[in-house]
Amino acid sequence: MTEYIQKCRAILDTIEAQQTQIEQAAQWFTNSILAGRMVHVFGSGHSRIMVEEMWPRYGSFAGFNPIVELSLTFHNLVVGANGQRQAMFLENVPGLADRILRNFDLSEQDSALVISSSGCNVVPIEMAELFQEKGINVVALITKEHSEASTSKRADGKKLSDFANLILDTGAPIGDAMITVLGLDTPVAPGSTVGGAVIVNSIKAEVARLLTEAGHPPKVLSAGVLVGAERAVELFEGAYDEHAHRLAKLYEKVGIPSYVSGL
Q1: CA–CA separation, 204 vs 178, rounded Å?
Q2: Is the pLDDT of residue 35 over 50?
Q3: Cβ count within 10 A of residue 240
Q4: pLDDT at res. 260
Q5: How far apart are alpha carbons 192 and 177 in whole angstroms?
Q6: CA 207, CA 233: separation in Å to the nearest integer?
Q7: How confident is the model at residue 258 (pLDDT cuts 50, 70, 90)?
Q8: Which of the 8 DSSP states describes residue 63?
Q9: At residue 73, does pLDDT exceed 80?
Q10: What residues pair up with 179 in beta bridges, in sequence order?
Q11: Helix residue ranges, H only, the chain
C-alpha cells in the first residue's frame, strides 16, 4: 500500500508541472461554454471513467458533452454477449468515430477532450482527427511514457498525440500498472485513473473559476447536506435543464446542408 501511495504522489508532481497546459485547456473550455456551446468529452474502454468524472456528478456543472458509447465501454459482463472482447475490437474499427460524430452539429466554438491512456486505439484517434478537421481545439489526455512506447493500431501509425492541440500526461508509467509483487512476473495496480481524475478535476475547478470571474457562475451539482435540500434540488434541475438546452443546439441543424443552415 505504501509503495502505491508514494507512486501516486509522484503522479501528482507530474501533474503539478503541467499547470500551464491545464490552464490553457481550461481557457479553451471556458470560451466554449461562454459561447453557449459545449466541450465534447470522449473516451473508450476504461477512459470512460474520466468522461463521467467530468460530468455529470457532484461538484460538476453543465457545459460538457459526455460521449460514451456503450459498445466501447460496457465492461461488467466481461465475456459473452456485450463482452470485453467485442469492445476492444470495436475501439479499433475505422469509421466508427465518424458515425458517432454524425449525430452532432459541431462548431469551431466547441472544444474537445479526448482520453486514451495509450493514445493508440483507432476510434479515439479518429475522433480527435475529425474534431480538428472542424476547427475544434483538441486536448488529448494520455499517459505519455506508455503512449510513446506503444504501437498505434492505426494503419498509418499516427497516434492521438498527432491530432492534439494540447497534450496532458496522467503521469503513469509504461504499462500503467505500478507495483511489482515478489514472485509475480506482471505488475499490478494501474495509475492512469488516479492521474486522469486529478487532471480533469483540476481543469473543472479552473473552468469554474474562469466562468465565475466572467460573471457566469456555473450551477454546480451539490449535495443537500452541503447546501440544503431545497438548494440542492434547484441546482440539480437547473444544471440538467442547462445541459438539455446546450445539447439541443448540437442537434438543431444535424443533416441540414450548409447552404440552408440558416433556415
Answers
A1: 27
A2: yes
A3: 14
A4: 46
A5: 8
A6: 23
A7: low
A8: S
A9: yes
A10: 188
A11: 2-16, 19-34, 48-54, 70-73, 84-90, 96-101, 122-133, 144-149, 192-213, 224-227, 229-251
The three grid cell numbers given for residue 85, joined into one nine-digit string:
472482447
Q: Which residue has the cell 470495436?
A: 90
Q: What's the average model confidence in pLDDT over 130-144? A: 98
Task: Give per-residue burial for 142-159: e unless 16+ CB within 10 Å, then b.
Answer: bbbbbbeebebbbeeebb
- Give the residue among 102, 113, 135, 52 at the shortest CA–CA distance from 251: 102
What integer pLDDT is reported at residue 1 of this predicted model?
83
Give the pLDDT confidence score for residue 76 in this predicted structure. Answer: 84
pLDDT of residue 262 exceeding 50: no
Copy the grid coordinates of residue 258: 450548409
Give the 3-state secondary structure of 73-103: HCCCCCCCCCCHHHHHHHCCCCCHHHHHHCC
User: Which of 124, 114, 123, 178 is CA-nearest to residue 146?
Assistant: 178
